[in-house]
Amino acid sequence: MSLDKNGASKFYVRKPFLKQVNSTFHAYRQLILFLFLCFVALFILIISISSHVFAQKTRLFLMEMMHPIAKLSNAPSEGIKDAREKVGDWIFAYDHLQALKKENQQLKDREAYYQTLKAENAELRQILHVVKSHERQFKTVPVISYPGKPFVKSILLEAGQQQGIEPQKALITSDGLVGRTIESSPTLTRGLLITDLNSHIPVIVKPSNHHAILIGDNTDKPLLKYLPYNVELKKGDTVETSGKGGVFPSGIPVGVVDSFSDGEATVKPYANLDSLSFVHVLSYKLGEFSSKVE
Fold this sequence. Notes:
Layout: E1 2-3, E2 9-10, H1 15-49, H2 53-128, E3 137-145, E4 154-157, E5 170-172, E6 177-184, E7 189-193, E8 200-206, E9 210-215, E10 223-225, E11 238-241, E12 253-261, E13 264-269, E14 278-283
Antiparallel strand pairs: 1-2, 3-4, 3-14, 4-7, 5-6, 5-14, 6-7, 8-9, 8-11, 9-10, 10-13, 11-12, 12-13
Helix pairs in contact: 1-2
């Protein structure tokens, strides 16, 4: 201790003492930090499980304080995630666009090829004097229900006599034959599917040109019966309508042979009969013979 100019006492702290305190703090700072963190963790644990009003208010205060910090800390990761998703979407869109361009070009090439075949076919028909067949006209009708009877495979169409739909007309889709109309009211029509027990359709098997009758058996694969004796069919042979009987025009795709044994075969239809939304009703009628002699 010493006196200053005004006579007041003045204390001096020696530098060796400060160095000793500083070295002691550095030596135990990890322990102090550890104890402090343990205290904070214990405090947070008590606050989180306590039901006291003060604890609840403190917990809410801490949550409000930490929420912006947590949101701010998550911002970079969220931004990276969004950027990665956008880049992935762009790559997918680009690849999809390239695939669509390729498919579009293939369709254009196929269309040009079909137009060439169509022109060639018309020229050959003219040379051979082939009689032109009647164009098939149809009406597109929505399917509104599948009757829930286990032994009846039929559909209900939202069109009837007022729309010009009559019984015994072929029902088709873009894939192939579906069935035929069996009865109609002014606004509704019931159609019988090719898988129904009451369905009997004259067909022809390609490429062997064997005639048969396609008979439904209430399964997904109708039967092919009344084939010629000792005929041999292969799996994958195509089945089309033969035109016999006058109800169905010839050449409508029906399906492919799925199995063959003991002179009978099962046919897998081209059309998916379990998910029909729309069907085409064919307007087909055979011409009549005239007995007049001129």
